[in-house]
Amino acid sequence: MSGNEPGPRPSDEELAAMGRDDLVKLGGQLDGVEIVDYPDPWPVKGTKAEKRAERAVALWFLVAALAGLAFVVALIWWPWRYEPRTDESAHFWYSLYTPVLGITLGVSVLAIAFGALLYAKKFIPNEVAIQQRSDNMGEGSAEVDRKTIVAHLADAGDRATIGRRSMIKRTAGLGVGALGLGVVALPVASFIKDPHDNADNKDGLVHTGWQKQHPGEIVYLRRHTGDANEVSLVRPEEIDAGGMETVFPFRESERGDHEALLHAVRRSDNPVMLIRLRPGDAAEVVKRKGQEDFNYGDFYAFTKICSHVGCPTSLYEQQTNRILCPCHQSQFDALQYAKPVFGPATRALAQLPITVHTDGYLIARHDFIEPIGPGYWERKS
Fold first, then answer.
1. What angle do the packed helices 97-123 and 88-95 form, to 10 degrees?
2. Phi, psi at residue 37, to the nearest 5°?
3. What are the transmembrane regions (predicted)?
4. What share of the chain is helix, strand, coil (3-state, %, to 5)?
5. Where does the pLDDT of residue 7 fall: very low under 50, low under 70, confident under 90, or very high at 90 and above?
6. Domain boundaries of the chain, sorted by first residue
7. DSSP H helices in 44-96
8. How far is the C-alpha of 305 from the C-alpha of 325, rounded, in Å?
């Protein structure tokens, strides 16, 4: 390739006496490297073009720093507690929490990358070299090789002029530092902040639309007929043995309120499967500890929200008493407190405690005693 043959290696005394330029030259000779071209990106120092390029690189690093600091500020002080849609203003700002975190962190990472790329393009020499490669017969690097490679790296740093560009170094350090602060703050905040820690928040993940809004309130089981304004309550005798019906919560205070009635059937965590087991099957039921009185006779009510990823468990097999989720084929045994028996789901479907009111209609005794649907970080069950 180059025709250069490695010369004799210097002694330790000669090696210690060599300067960096001598080591760079020696390293090239030992590695069989011929530098064909090593142009200086800025042969005339201090030009306006060079200053503009330096400011452009520094600007990207400054943007990275500002975005990183904005990420930390948003992580700590942006409204992060869950706010229901009933308060439009508060919910709007809460809904921006995750997008703001993603945008600020993404801008910080991208700005550092753009700054590094621009610096490499504008200030690092485009060296053209030819090298004859060798694996040194499988032996490790000798002391002379280690010293010469360090010299080469230091020389490359000097030729890239990073040492005399304090603006770029300061902004790069600021950008990386701000990003690093955000990277550290994010997992720490995850252990401290819980958007759903307010147990009284009826719209949080801990509760559903079946929660009583005030003491003594009656929450009926209502079937959806397709007409949001029609209120069709459920009596036990209306469901045959082995039958299933999807029901939603209803309060007398909502009667005639179109928006409230429509919201009740559209809220994602409200649908419940009301199942009436056949008498022979009901005798074989295994009840979950602490939920022995959640059923009413042969009637059992389970959430339709699958505990795997939240799909609707819309299918019920009367012969096998299996509740099926069509998304990923999880199956739950209705005779064993809706325990998963097949598929990826690992948690039983939450059971709604039900009974019959004095007027003969089925009602919910209270809300689910555990969060429904898939698991999440703050969930205890």
1. 30
2. -150, 135
3. 57-80, 100-120, 172-192
4. 40, 15, 45
5. low
6. 12-192, 219-364
7. 48-77, 88-95
8. 9
- Among residues 370, 358, 371, the alpha carbon closest in space to that of 220 is found at 358
- Quick one: which of 353, 361, 350 has its CA closest to 250? 361
Q: Write down the residue that tokens 């600007």 correspond to.
A: 59
6 half-sphere exposure, CB direction, 13 A CA radius: 15
CB 273 within 8 A of CB 301: yes
What is the distance between the alpha carbons of residues 111 and 115, in angstroms, rounded to a whole number? 6
Amino acid at 123: F
Read off the tokens for 295: 């059923």
Q: Is 143 left (phi over 0), alpha (psi -120 to 50) or beta?
A: alpha
What was the pLDDT predicted at 154? 77
Q: At residue 310, what is the residue type?
A: G
DSSP bridge pairs for 245: 274
Which pair of tokens denotes residue 111?
A: 């700005």
3-state DSSP assignment of residue 98: helix
Contact (CB, 8 A) for 307 and 348: yes
CB 66, CB 50: distance < 8 Å: no
Side chain identity, residue 282? A
Distance CA(344)–CA(295), nearest Å, equals 26
Give the separation between CA 195 and CA 172, rounded to whole angstroms: 34
> DSSP string covering 135-179, please?
-GGGPPPPHHHHHHHHHHHHHHHHHTTGGG-HHHHHHHHHHHHHH
pLDDT above 90: residue 35: no
CA angle centred on 379, ends 377 and 381, rounded to 5°: 135
Identify the helix (H) or strand (E) that includes residue 302.
Answer: strand 299-303
**Residue 361 CB burial class (10 angstroms; 0-12, 13-18, ≥19):** middle
Residues 6+ apart with CB under 8 A from 269: 208, 209, 303, 305, 372, 373
- pLDDT tier at 52, thresholds 50, 70, 90: very high
- Return the structure tokens found at 89: 């203003």
pTM of the model: 0.58
DSSP per residue, 348-362:
PPPB--EEE-TTS-E
Query: What's the topology of domain 219-364?
Result: Rieske Iron-sulfur Protein (2.102.10)
